[in-house]
Amino acid sequence: MRAAVLHETGQDKLEVLDDVEAVGFGPGRVRIRVRATGLCHSDLSAMNGVLPQPAPFVPGHEGAGEILEVGEGVTHLQPGDRVVVCWLPACGACPACKRGQTELCLAGFMNAGTPNFKRPGGDVFGFAGTGTFAEEVVVDAGCAVPMPEDVPFDIAALIGCGVTTGLGAAINTADVEAGSSVAVIGCGGVGISAIQGARLKGAAEIVAVDPVLSRREAALAFGATKAVPPDELPGAKQEITAGEGFDYVFEVVGRSATARTAYENTRRGGTLVIVGAGAMDDFLQLNMFELFFDEKRILPSLYGGGDVLRSYERTIDLWRAGRVDLAGLITHRVPLAEINEALDQMRTGSALRTCIEL
Question: Rounded to whole angstroms, what are the CA distances from 80 to 30, 69, 146, 159?
């Protein structure tokens, strides 16, 4: 079958090969025919080594498709079912799951160290234990979440990561208060979803911050009340909050420099939400006095900060009701053979989400 493979961490191009085989099928596992997958910035971060991932590997973790085969003991799925790939499934038995913090379950991360594919030259891993830049993937049954018939594969794919992450950051993690002021730094697919979440929660002012003009224009269409490049954020802060700072600031880039900017633009007693996935050697510096004196809440948000399955269901309900726009997030579509074009679209910021159709 065909799959896009990164041979070594640090390479900036994927090679689309037709000699890749999905492996690992057996009890408790399912085989999925991938129909659509989104390109998330986390895929780029894994390719360049910001996120740890053994190589060679098949990137992709935001995917949807249909079940081809189910292993022994799998009773909630059958061939032909439409599913979204969940890269962070809950085991239901660990301490985090028992506390109701299923987004902190480590079971899914353990899968990243087990090869999902093989080639004549040896084993190939799947990013985040999945690897959806492939025509087929074998995953634990818990990674395959049934999707209703009326949800298209491309929409289902977005729900698998970016939309759930952004909406959840605003709705679950921050629990944005109606009438509040919000700034979102980084307005790709996840940032735009955070903007939609803040709008749903009733924020009065939502400032989108991004260096790319097309993304700022898109942010306004999705619910932002103002959109500025980074160097104009101080002026927006002064205009909207009289210099006090925003009630909520979302950092959706994953860098200490933007996180520091986000902190400085959060009002005293306000909330900074860290959504972007950053590097282990990139340190955010805060002094002990400002931590004490400013009483700003710093809330990391992993995968939307809530129960993933409930978040999926909520997103579908909101999409059906026309309360969130998911189709509009897909600005580009490419076949798997043109995956490197999609990578360039992500790097330049010209795309909110590129859908790779398989």
Answer: 12, 9, 11, 20
Say how far residue 102 (Cα) sits from the centre of its chain: 16
Strands 29-38 and 62-70: antiparallel
* pLDDT average, residue stretch 144-153: 96
Joined tokens for residue 44: 């780029």
Q: Is the pLDDT of residue 64 over 80?
A: yes
Token digits for 286?
Answer: 């805060």
In the chain, the N- to C-terminal Cα span, in Å, equals: 11
261: its two tokens: 């900017």
Residue whose entry in the numeric block shows the structure tokens 């004196």: 293
pTM of the model: 0.95
Please tell me what DSSP assigns to residue 87: S
Q: Which residues are CB-contacts of 231 (< 8 A; sequence separation ≥ 6)?
A: none
Task: Report pLDDT digits (tens) over 15-28.
Answer: 999 999 999 999 99
Q: Look up tokens 């400032």; give the residue.
A: 207
Length of the chain: 358
Q: Which of 101, 79, 77 is nearest to 90 (CA)?
A: 101
266-274/297-300 β-pairing: parallel
- At residue 111, the pLDDT reads 74
Which pair of structure tokens corresponds to residue 136? 């087929």
Output the pLDDT for position 108.
73
Beta-sheet strand order (sheet of 57-58): 21-22, 117-119, 122-126, 57-58
- Nearest CA to 183 out of 212, 203, 202 is that of 203
Q: What percent of the chain has pLDDT over 70?
A: 100
Task: For residues 93-119, give the mean pLDDT.
Answer: 88
CA distance 4 to 338: 10
How many other CB atoms are found less than 10 A from the CB of residue 248?
30
For residues 265 and 237, what is the distance between their CA atoms, to the nearest angstrom? 7
The tens digit of pLDDT for each residue in 239-263 reads 999 999 999 999 999 999 999 999 9
